[in-house]
Every structure is written in structure tokens, then in C-alpha cells.
Amino acid sequence: MFSFKNDYSEIAHPRILQKMLDTAYIQADGYGLEEFTYEAQDIIKKKINEENVDIHFVSGGTQANLITISASLRAHEAVVAAESAHIVVDETGAIEATGHRIYTIPTSDGKIRPEEVKSVFEENHDTNFAPYPKLVYISNPTELGTVYDKNELKAIHDCCKELGMYLFVDGARLACALTLDDVDIKFEDLPKVCDVFYIGGTKNGALYGEAIVICNDNLKPFFSWSIKQRGGLLSKTRVMALQFTELLRDELYLDLGRHANELAKILTEGIKEAGYSFFVDSPTNQVFPVFPNEIMDKMLEKYRFQTWTAVDDKTTAIRLVTSWATPKEVCCEFVEELIRISK
Amino acid sequence: MFSFKNDYSEIAHPRILQKMLDTAYIQADGYGLEEFTYEAQDIIKKKINEENVDIHFVSGGTQANLITISASLRAHEAVVAAESAHIVVDETGAIEATGHRIYTIPTSDGKIRPEEVKSVFEENHDTNFAPYPKLVYISNPTELGTVYDKNELKAIHDCCKELGMYLFVDGARLACALTLDDVDIKFEDLPKVCDVFYIGGTKNGALYGEAIVICNDNLKPFFSWSIKQRGGLLSKTRVMALQFTELLRDELYLDLGRHANELAKILTEGIKEAGYSFFVDSPTNQVFPVFPNEIMDKMLEKYRFQTWTAVDDKTTAIRLVTSWATPKEVCCEFVEELIRISK
Amino acid sequence: MFSFKNDYSEIAHPRILQKMLDTAYIQADGYGLEEFTYEAQDIIKKKINEENVDIHFVSGGTQANLITISASLRAHEAVVAAESAHIVVDETGAIEATGHRIYTIPTSDGKIRPEEVKSVFEENHDTNFAPYPKLVYISNPTELGTVYDKNELKAIHDCCKELGMYLFVDGARLACALTLDDVDIKFEDLPKVCDVFYIGGTKNGALYGEAIVICNDNLKPFFSWSIKQRGGLLSKTRVMALQFTELLRDELYLDLGRHANELAKILTEGIKEAGYSFFVDSPTNQVFPVFPNEIMDKMLEKYRFQTWTAVDDKTTAIRLVTSWATPKEVCCEFVEELIRISK
Amino acid sequence: MFSFKNDYSEIAHPRILQKMLDTAYIQADGYGLEEFTYEAQDIIKKKINEENVDIHFVSGGTQANLITISASLRAHEAVVAAESAHIVVDETGAIEATGHRIYTIPTSDGKIRPEEVKSVFEENHDTNFAPYPKLVYISNPTELGTVYDKNELKAIHDCCKELGMYLFVDGARLACALTLDDVDIKFEDLPKVCDVFYIGGTKNGALYGEAIVICNDNLKPFFSWSIKQRGGLLSKTRVMALQFTELLRDELYLDLGRHANELAKILTEGIKEAGYSFFVDSPTNQVFPVFPNEIMDKMLEKYRFQTWTAVDDKTTAIRLVTSWATPKEVCCEFVEELIRISK
């Protein structure tokens, strides 16, 4: 049975694995202090059209989040995030384990707005009885598949700058945000609209690896000390570098994200055609249709996917995730099957 | 120039990379809850001849150490380790960053003895002015390439049990300890002589990955919560599992360790023949010859290696590391060159 | 101008200060290992009618909270509390700074219910993606002056026991909960309805000091290690002991709490008589009347108190706090003045 | 039996307690934001002849240490201290519990030298494998009663400034360092020779309380957030302020320190006269004579004191501590008794 459970069900894009195999015995120094890593850093700088950044590679998203946040904050400082944020619901309290509170903002679409950030700041910054709000964490796309465009990011970043806060953009699924026809946000915009972000590899064709890009000079010094201290510095950093080089030396990275988006669109349009609505409107590779429970159960006989939340007694929102590796035929068959059983 | 700087200079054994390539598109659930992971766990259980263990995979040694230690200790408890231990000298205070002190024991060969553990315990366990010594951390082989045999481990473990302490064996280079002709320690001994250990992949042919094996029932509950909280739980845990399956389904893992040991022996014997002594006697894949500085400089023109420590004004101990990927010819040439320039 | 801002505006009850002066030069060993401390512990055990408890003294409430919680939890475990709880709104992220998340429950009266605890537990205990809910923190009285009676506490405690959780009762203002005519909760009930609680001194006549009483055997071992490690172990612990001895050797502690409650009642009844309502119905020493802003401003010309929250554009909830030291006349005058200006 | 075990055996100087009693019912706002606290801060600024400092009050030495250190360091930074330092041997790993390693320097007299600091720095500052040495912690007097004079402090401070490190001086027994005839260090020197220090109250006549004085502007922002977060901010901060006002408004604070030193001198000279040597030469209120074990045992029949360390099979170093409250007669009698039994 095909699984729409997530975008890390397959190992990695063959081009990446072949590259590893081809270079298996080429020696390189450890911990990122060597040419393979420098090459990947250069390619990323070109892609984002910005030389004045520091780039570090870590093996996964929770690591990227906890290292970036704990390296950026002093002990009395806190994070602001959506209540649906990955650091809130999916990381076992990883941020708190480094000593920092997360102020959460309620949200129906996974996105937060500048005025909400400002409100949290106003309520909590001027008394030593509350941890000081210092960093805003968002994901683009969000956990609900929604996307911030360039202007929205700029507005949050401007708000952060005004308040003396940092903006950190989790880009675990960044490729899907950068490849939508009607959403204006590109690689080269990113350094201009946040203080630090990461380019996700694990969910977009890489075997593992996230590339953290630090734009704000304040956040650069000693960052690699933090990576090492939190266990995030791999001796073979060069292998993560190799993957990003392979993904970014041409259009592969964006092509894979576009592929996932396009297949999600097939699902979305088919599901609409079959007469169903959605828990949230997502243009990216996660779609959240609401099915009557008996329809959901029938589809579960043929496909694997995650139930998201009960909408009422009789209907449930589910999550379907497409990826760089999802075949188009499977999505078409899913829709056909849905239409068939819905008649 | 060939590098003897470490045992992670190459990417991974081709058999492992080929296996990834062959199975790139096979779907599996995330976070280790799937068949690839279960298979690797079963193979490890067979290798160590013990069913009653919990097995977890993390991506690197510092992670394995900080997760295992912080998951095992309450806030007021401390670690005991050699002053040359990896957690003391190579991990940027990772253990302290989780809140725990390390009591260090001076050592000339990287090993610690039961009476030294007992002494630290006696001095620090009965007053609430000192953190309570609760876990002994050792590496086998040690950072200096020396090895604990079965009886030595058992003696430390018995000491720990008597004192109510845990014994944790870092096995980053475990394969090299298990494949010496004259050192009696085997896979199946490990669960009997410690509370938790790990089987190192990164330094012995794997791309990345360490397999933590928990033997003591006290340490098992909620361990995976700690892995996730510290950023160590990879979504594609299945890829680490696949690597251990490939390394352990036959004798590959031990063969690779034996290869590294044998090449180290070529170096050791050649260096002796050339008339030089050693900073420490190491039977495994790290050797520490002491060279006159001009000899060291000449060898550095042809080979890359790490200077370890100045012995006096005129001589320096260096570190040569062999690995699963080191070619025999290179070691022979190294020796020949050394003999040639030493005449 | 008289201040109703809090219950720690005065130094301490003269009986306590006189006792210190009388015994200033009597020597005692440090850190609680001496007769003055043992005597206070014995008196507390008699008051609560339970011998099988451990008793520790720390200097303030935030310390009592962060030490008790961090000593009780493993790294992956979390706290459940009302969103208005002292640990949430008044302690600068002290709990998170020890590594633990607080799950918050919305509440209008400061109290939480067993079914709410259960709901948080059910949603978060069975996945390693969420920190494990292990300890429920409540205050009695709450931050809003409301009170849990014996049955309510027992219901939460039973719920905790069923779920394998601990119940911790912050008793910073405990005297005010124990001295209400129509609320059934007494000193001797406490060990039966929670796992650990503290008897607040600072806000009820003591100079400083809170007595932590550990009822659950699981939480007793090594507690004093945690106190010392967090900086909570005072060398002159004997002085905190002396204060509790003086407060508890007769009825002084309860008399002071009753006094505060009675004066609060004078305020409450007078404010009702003057025609005003309350933000929350509190029977204890904190009352929260809602005043038109111009009335509030006029009262602020004659009295000091805290504005709590704006209710709407024209009215504001304020907080009036009475204490062991508040004179009855001042409360009567406050009411008279209010009635006068409200006509 | 009179106790020479420590300098916190008595409660507090009667002048302090009387002042509390006299002002028991005077209201003041909480948390140091009121006149009593401002007055104490002003008096301290005058004493040290420096306006440009921030002053905070906490209740004990371990708190002062852990708060100052954790507030001053980023996560990857470490402390340098003598291996006999209070933070190393007497605080249950409090510094590590906030996430920071302590690099220790061996010492026979409790003091460390600039070249030793420099050596630790050189070995550990330029690799991301070691926590970055950022703050030097010393006590004056040290744990062994020895004293740094002005020039010695200046030399360490100059070294720290050169290396970009901070110097923190623990002044738990500061009064004893400031009142020696032949040691040149005065209140007004302190802001010039360190970045932050504290004036100890608990061991010199106060009931409790240490006054942290921050000289370096870098360390001032948000310090009170850290105090609150670590549980160190007492609601009745005004009571600590009152004590420092009373101690420092005239010469009481220094008089009490001088008294302790003078009585220690009586002990030292008497013990020398009786023919005994010392474990370390201390000019302040802790003296460390080495007694034959049978002499030690006989003295223990009449006096209480701490055994420090066994010197050999037959002799033991003990610790005698005098204080502001020690009567001169007791010291004279101690010496007489010693001489008597030594004949």
C-alpha cells in the first residue's frame, strides 16, 4: 500500500546516493573544515545571492531548531511561535530542555501575524517576572501547508527589527514554498526577510541534512561551538555538504519541491471534484481533506495516511503528504478511487 | 597526500551505499517504527546473544553520549570518566550543557580502574555539597587506542554494581576492540559487563550512525523521549538501521575493524623497526609514535596526520589513524619512507 | 498612603523578630542539621498529623517551586498547571530554565479540574513527540484567591494517582485556605491529598521561608541535593526553622491567616454594599473588585493597590491584598471612602 | 561546647535584628523597587566610591555564584577556577546545572595566578571542541583563608581583559580581606580590579544576604531577570537592603571582619607558641593548624571544629573559624588548653 503519511518515507534521490558511491573513497577532513563543505556553502551563497552569511549543516530539523534557538538566546530570553509550530507540538520539549520558554500564539492556518508578535512582546518584555520575548520562530511552509510570501515575511521581520527581536524561519519544506506559481518568495529573498533560516534537505530529496543560513551578524560568532555542544556536528559534515551541492548545483532542489506541490494539486483538485472540503487551504505538499468517516476507512484500505483531527462525530480531517518521490499515477489513482467510492 | 588524521575521512563502505541506492524508493515509516529498524535490532540482538535489551540509533558519538548520560541521570547526579575521555576533551562541554558534572580521573593510558572509581565515589557520595557520582563512562578502545578486556570491564562493572552506579561503554571504535588476537572481549560479552553501550558505525564503514544498546532495565523506559528531545531522533532512522543490518548480517563489521587493526600493526612494527618509541602502547587503529621534530616535518611533507603533544623540545608524539578504508600499500610506503629518512 | 498591593509589604511578625533577637548568639550547625531545624520539623509533623514526611526549608516561593519540580521530574517530563499559575506568569520561566515544559490549562477562577488534567495527559503521554505530563502544580489558595476544599484536592490527587502523576500544592498563602468557615480543608488533610506541598511563611508573618513537605516516598531521596544545587540551601536554615516553630507552636500561623481573610471580607462586603461587582469571587485575602476608572483613580489618590486587568473601556479590575499586618481600621476607612465617593 | 566550625553559627548582629524589629510594620514595595533598597545601594556606591555600578541582593553565596555566572555566560562558555573553589567543592554542581563547565586549576594555597588563567585559555579557546573559557571565578579571601591584595587582583583582571574574559570575585568573607594590616585592598579598589563582585553579609553579621556589585557594563542588562528566573529574587528584598544599610552606614561591617581576623590571630599565635605548624598560612578568620591526632581528639572533647584533611597517619589538619560573634575569651582559653595538653 502506498503511503501518503509523510515526505520522508523514501531514502534519497538516486543522484545523491550515486554521488556518494562515486566518491566513497575520496578522503576529506572532518567537521566541515574542507573543500566539499566550502563548495556547498559557495553554491548556497550564489543561490540566495548573498555572500555575507554563515552556513552550517546539521542532520535534522529538531537539531536545527534547538541549536539555532539556544545559540541565539541568553538564559532569560524566550521564543514566540504559533501554537501549531513544530517546536511546540513535535519536538518533546526540545526548546524548553535548553532552558527557554515558548510563548504560543493561537492560529487556525498555522501562520502568525506581526500584530500578534507585537502583542506578546508588549505583554511580556518590561517586567522581570516574564521571560523576555527575543526570537520569533516560524516555518515556511507552516505545519499546515500554508505559505508566507515575501511581503508577509518582510512585515514580520520589520516588526521583529522594531522590537529588537530575531526572526528564524524553519525551512524544512522550503522547496515547496519557493515553487508555487502564485506565491512570491524566492531563494534570494530569504536573507533580506529574516535573521536566520534553514534550507531543508531531509524532506526534499536528501538522505539527511539541513543547511542553516545565518544572516544577522549578531548570531554568527561561536555558532559552531553550539552545534558541537548539542551533538549536532557530524564528523562527516562533508556528506551533508555533498548532498546540498548535488541538490543545488542545478535546479534539482526546486524541481523536487515543484513535483511535490504539483502532485498535491492533483489530490486537492480531485478531492474537490469528489465533493469534499478541506480543514485548511494548503497550496503545498500537505493537504488536509475532511472525509466522512466511512469514506476515510475505505480509503485506508488502499492507502496509508495520517488522520489529523476529528472534525465532528461523523467526519475527520486527514493529512495527505506528497513528496519528491511520489509517483503521479498513485495520486491519480487515489482520486479515481475516492470518486468511485463517493458515488 | 594520504591522510592518517582520522577514521572518518572516507564516506562509507560501498556495500552500504549500494544498498541505499537499491532501496532508495522503498517506503518506510519514520522514526524507527518499521521493519528495517526492527530487522537491524534483531540482528544486533543475535550478535550480542541477548534478547533483553533495547536498541536505539542516533547519528553520532557526541549525541550518543549526551543522550545516554542525560537520560540516565537525575539532576543532582554526575559522571565519572578519564580526564582524556571524549566527553571531557572533545565535546564542547556537551554533558555539562545537560546539567551534569564530570568527575575526572587522571590517566596515562586512557583507562580507569575500579579502585579509582571507588575513590571518587567515596569522596563525593555522602554529602549534599557534591553532585552524586552515578555513572561511569569509558570508551573501548579508549581515546589512546588502548583496550579493556572482558575481565577488566567486568571488574569495573562489578564495582559499579556494588556502588549502585551505572557503567556506560562508548563503542565508537568498538570493532577495533573486538578483533584483537590477544584481547579477550567479544560482542556477546558486552551485555554482561555494562549497563549500556553503543556500537559505533561512523568510524567503521557506516555513513553515520551509532547503535545504543541498553542492557539495564532501569535505563530503558522513555529513552526514545530523550533522543527526540535532544534532537537525535532522525525521521529516516531506517537508514541507520539499514547500515547496521548491512554491517552485521555477516562479518563485515568485524572484518573492517580487523583491517584497521592490522594496518595499524604494520605501522607500529615499521616504526619500531625504524627505531622510534611510542607515547602509549596501542594495539588498535590509533598509534602514537614519538618522532624527532625534523623527522615529523619530513613525514608531513608526504602524509597528513595529527600532532598529538610535544614530548620535549625536540620530539613530538603524533597520531596515526588507520581505518576500514586505509590501503595496505599506503602503510607500507609510510614505513619505507620513514626508514629511508631516518637513516 | 496605605498599600494593599501585596501581603509582603511588612517585615515580619514581632514575635518572630523578638525570638531571633533573644537567641542571636546561640550557636547552631549549618544547613539544617541541628536541633532548631529538627524541632520545627517535629512541630510541622504534629500539625499535619503525619510522621512519614520529609521537611525542607527554602527562602522563597519561586525557589520552592523550581526545586520541587526539577527534583521530581526526569528530563523528558513536564508540568501541568493553570494558565494563571504563579510558575506560568510570575517566575520568569524558572521551570523552563530547569528544562521542563509547562502544559497550561485555561481557567477563569484560577482552579483546574481533574478532567482537564486527564485531557492534557491523554493528548500527550503516549507519543515521544511530546514531553510526558508527570506533575500537576496547583496553588491553594490560587492566584485569584479561590480555594480548593479537601474533596476537590482529593479528586485531583486521585486523578493523578490513576495517571501515575504527582500533585504538588503551592501553599504560599496556605493559611488563608485553612481558615475559612465554609471551606473544609485542614492541615491534617494535606498529606492525604497530595504528594508534596509547602507551607508558606513569607506571606503570613515570617520574615522569609517556605516549608516543603514531601509526602510521597518516591520524591524524598536526594531532595536536599537539589536544594543545594539550585542555591536554595541557606547556611542558617536554623533561622527559617525558628520562624516556623514560632508560627506553629501555638495558633499564630492560622490566626494570622484568619486575620487576613476577615479583613478581606470587610473589603468585599463593603465594596458590594457600595454597589460594585467582582472580577472573581475570592473568599481569601485577595479581592478583585471591578471599579469604574474614575472611581479607581480617586481611590488611588488615597490608597496604593494593583490594577489587575481592564474589563472594558470604562472599568478595571483591581487587586486588594490584606495580610497578617493589615489594620482593621484601614479596611473600614477604605470602604467608607469608597461609599462616600460612589454616591 | 563552643563551635569553631564556621562563621554562620550565630543568627545575626543584634543591631540588625533590632532594626528589623523597630521597622517591622513599615510598608515597602516588593522585589527591591523601593526606598530601603535604593538607600542601601547608595551607601554601597559611596563605600566603593563608584557610582557606575548595578547592585543586586540575593540571599546566599551559592545563589550569588550561580546567578552571576549563568547570567554572564552564553551557553558554550565556561568558567575558570581554583580546584578548591567554593563552586567546585561546595555547591553540588550548581554551575554545571546551569549548563557550564568549570576548568579547574590546581592550587596549594587556594589562589590562582594570571599565567595559569592564560594557560587554560590558550589550550581551550580556539577550537569548537572545548567550551570557551570566558569568566574567572576567585574568592577573596579564598577557601583556604589566603588573600589577594590589590596588585594581585589587578594582575588577574588585566590578564582577563587582555583575553576578553570577565573576573568575578566572590566576597562571602570580603570583610576579612579588607581589614588586614599588611594586605593592601580596600572597598574602593574593588570596582577597579574586577568585573563583578559581591559583598558577603551572611558570614559577617547579617542574618542573610549578599550584595552583588556589577562593574562591567556588559554584565548589567537583564541581570534581575536572571535573579528572578533562578529563584533568587526575594519579595522582601528590602530586608536584605536594610541589613546592608545597617552594616555599612558606619564602620560596623569592617569592624566585624577585623574582629574575626584578630581572634584568628590569637589562635594562630597561640598554636605556634604551642609548637604546631599550619596546613596553609592564612591571615584571615580561617586557620588550619596541623595537630597530632591525639591532641586533636583531646581538643575535640572541649571544642567543636572541622577536620580538614589527614596530613599523614598521625597528624591531621583541622579548620578553626572565628567570626564577628566569637568571644575573645574563648580563643584565649582554646590556646591555654592547647598549651596545657601539649606539654
Can you describe what's shown?
The structure is a homotetramer of 343-residue chains. Chain A is an alpha/beta fold. Chain A has 2 domains: 2-7 and 253-342, Aspartate Aminotransferase, domain 1, CATH 3.90.1150; 14-252, Type I PLP-dependent aspartate aminotransferase-like (Major domain) (Aspartate Aminotransferase, domain 2), CATH 3.40.640.10. Chain A contains 14 helices and 13 strands. Chain A has helices at residues 14-22, 35-48, 61-72, 86-89, 94-97, 114-124, 150-163, 174-177, 190-193, 223-229, 237-248, 252-273, 293-300, 328-342, and strands at 2-3, 54-58, 77-82, 102-105, 132-139, 166-170, 196-200, 210-214, 286-287, 290-292, 303-304, 306-310, 315-321. In chain A, the strands form 3 sheets. A 7-stranded mixed sheet of chain A has the order 2-8-7-6-5-3-4, sandwiched between helices. In chain A, strands 9, 10, 12 and 13 form a 4-stranded antiparallel sheet that branches. In chain A, strands 1-11 form a two-stranded parallel ribbon. In chain A, α6 packs parallel to α7. The longest helix of chain A has 22 residues, at 252-273. The radius of gyration of chain A is 20 Å and the shape is globular. Chain A starts with a strand and ends with a helix. Chains A and B meet through β1, α1, α3 and α10 of A and β1, α1, α3, α10 and α11 of B.
